[in-house]
Structures are given as C-alpha cells and as structure tokens.
Amino acid sequence: MPAVSRRRVRAAALVAVVPLFAAAACGGDDDRAEPAPDALSDTQLASALLTQPELPAGWQLVGGGQKVGAGEVPQTDRKECQPVLDLVAGRSAKVAPTGQADAGLYLGSEADTGGSHLNLQQYRQGEADKLLDAAERALPSCGTFGVRQADGSLAPASAARTDPPGFGDRATAFTFTLTTDAGPMAIPYTVVRSSSVLLVASTVNEPAKNAPPLPTTIVRSQLDKLAGRQHR
C-alpha cells in the first residue's frame, strides 16, 4: 500500500476516510425498501450537524466531507467483514443512503491531533438497523482481514469491539486499525442509530499517534440536535 502522508491523514478531517484506501470497489445500490417516514433531506441533515458555537472549548469545526458513492466503498478479502468496512467507508455499496452530511473537527493544534468526523447517513425504513445488525455479527470474527487496493494488493486491517454509549435507539463501537507503510493507524468509531439515521463519529489517527476520540458529550449533543430535527 502506498505510504500515507501526514498531510493526507490530516485532510481526513475534511473528507471521508475512503480516500485512504484508494480501493477499487464494486456493487450497486439496493432501493427496494420504503422511504423512512421521518427521512431528512441532504439540506436538513446538514442543518442537523453541530455548529462551531455548539462545540466545547478547544474544538474547531473545519468543514465537511463529500458524499460517498457506491463505487468508492473499499472491499475486503473476507466478505463476512464487509459490513464493518461499510461503516468505516461511510456507507454500504449495496444499500444506498438517501442523504449524507459530514462535519470535520480538530481538538487543539492540528499538528498534534487526529482529524475527527461527525457523519450523518439517512437510510430507508429498516435499513439502518440491518446495517448495524450485520456489523455487530461481523465484529467478533474480524480481528484480521485485508482491504483490497486498486492494484489488487491487500492492506492489513483489523476491527475490535469497544464499549458503546448508552444512548440513541441503538449503538455500537469499535476500533478499526489500518496498517500503512508509516505504521498502524487506529481509528475509533462510535455508531449511534436515531430512527432511520446512522450517526457515525470517528477520529483518524496519524500512525504512531494516539489522538483522543470524540468525547461522548459531543456525540450526545450531535444526537440530541439530530433527534430534534427528526421530531419536528
């Protein structure tokens, strides 16, 4: 796998983690499910993201990422681990979100910390729960797998379950570790479902760094703001 530069890793605060893989993906969208009755549009999802005045002291909002297309979702050499990689990528290749919004954040100096994300994914009725079901079933057996690159090679990766927060309609948490030429890059993920939306919080660490994950208070504030938009 090509080396990942510090500049590129820090740029993950502005874009989704997908470009780190440079992977060739396949698959298509499954649009058979019914629309969720409380579905939010892209504009409404964007308005549900936290703003700078709503962040704790020291945290800086640095903009959001682009939508993730089906063809940008990296693939794993072990299909049973694909549901975990789908959460890492920001969407499933086979189950299309009907809306996406993303905010990048830094704590303190960007030279010393990883780039964090608050990502909102709107799904059709029942799909968000199914995606979480699949990921939770996969996590216990995905201690080792490979992420397929565009040249056909595999980047070593692993996923380990961590303690999820006790809020939202449902939540899961794990650490995804990707091995790069510069060393392992550990990315903590917290995924919280609010009705038909998945809130995905993550922090992209530089290799050999240990940037703190987004605090539970920020994730909870984001969930509360999202839920408020859903229940209008």
Total DSSP helices: 5
CATH architecture call: 3-Layer(aba) Sandwich
Q: Please tell me the total number of domains.
A: 1
**Name of the level-1 CATH class:** Alpha Beta
Rg: 16 Å
Helix content: 10-25%
Oligomer designation:
single chain
Q: Label the structural class.
A: alpha+beta
Features:
about 230 residues; alpha+beta; Protein Transport Mog1p, Chain A; eight-stranded antiparallel β-sheet; 5 helices; 8 strands; globular
Summarize the structure.
By secondary structure, this protein is α+β, with helices and mostly antiparallel strands. It is built from 5 helices and 8 strands; from the N terminus they run ααβαββαβββββα.
Description:
A hairpin with a 2-residue loop joins strand 7 (183-194) and strand 8 (197-204). The chain has 232 residues and is α+β, with helices and mostly antiparallel strands. The model is unreliable at 1-29 (pLDDT under 50). The chain has helices spanning 6-10, 42-48, 82-89, 127-138, 216-230, and strands at residues 59-63, 99-107, 115-122, 145-148, 154-161, 170-180, 183-194, 197-204. It starts with 5 loop residues before the first helix and ends with a helix. 20% of the residues lie in helices and 28% in strands.
Please give the structural blueprint:
Blueprint: H1 6-10, H2 42-48, E1 59-63, H3 82-89, E2 99-107, E3 115-122, H4 127-138, E4 145-148, E5 154-161, E6 170-180, E7 183-194, E8 197-204, H5 216-230
Antiparallel strand pairs: 1-2, 2-3, 3-8, 4-5, 5-6, 6-7, 7-8
Helix pairs in contact: 2-5, 3-4
